[in-house]
Amino acid sequence: MMIRKIFAVIGGMITGNLIIFLMEAINHFHYPLPKGVTYENREAFSRYIESLPVDALLMIIAGYVIGAFAAGFVSTKIAKDGKQYYAMICGVLLLSAIIWNFTMLPTPTWMWISGILAPSVVFAGYKVALNKTKI
Length: 135
What we know:
By secondary structure, the protein is mostly helical. The protein has one domain. It is built from six helices and no strands. The protein has helices at residues 2-30, 42-51, 54-79, 85-104, 109-117, 122-130.
């Protein structure tokens, strides 16, 4: 059923992006934008990003990792055919979004490496979704 496969990817991406959004919202709560800094003022926003402590950046990476896991899990559960294609598609889409995001902002090298590796966690979500063991 093709429609189920399409919805598997859509459901995985919605879930993954919702988790990433929530993690970033928590981050913005703890580290709000300074007065006068807006997303449109790229120079001021870049300075704000550069001034963030490491734990704020780690929170973003954690969002990517948890979001990728959830995307892999949800896409596999919706598809119900045991194939990893849907998780892979979610991983590629998340990777594309992460790279695009990082090219727009000043991010340290360690964050680039972590961000590029984070979408591979979709495979862990895929594997857990296949587990039929009852807890």
